[in-house]
Design brief:
The protein is an all-alpha fold.
């Protein structure tokens, strides 16, 4: 009988430690999950801010590359203008081949 009592007591202690370890494991897992969720929310917020910046940059790029703006800057800052009819010369492909051989 004494052996059976010792075995039961040992089994009860082992079960108690198993329940305790299971509880600690559950609390730890929940804590880690919450920590990862907070990190996920921060990364999503960062992603959203970067997407907003990307959209603004695309709008700015489109504005800076408009033909009217490029033409205005070429005229104002570089002094470029459309050539007069007499200033235009047409080069044909045959002329270019002859000139490259010489």
């Amino acid at each position: 009988m004494k052996r059976r009592g010792n075995w039961m007591r040992t089994a009860l202690i082992c079960a108690w430690f198993a329940v305790l370890a299971s509880g600690v494991g559950a609390v730890y897992a929940r804590h880690e999950a919450r920590k990862l969720f907070v990190e996920l929310q921060a990364l999503e917020r960062s992603r959203d801010e970067l997407n907003i910046d990307w959209g603004r940059l695309r709008i700015e790029q489109g504005m800076l590359a408009t033909h009217a703006r490029v033409e205005r800057l070429a005229t104002e800052k570089l002094g470029m203008r459309l050539p007069a009819a007499g200033e235009v010369s047409i080069v044909r492909e045959d002329d270019a081949k002859v000139a490259s051989r010489e």
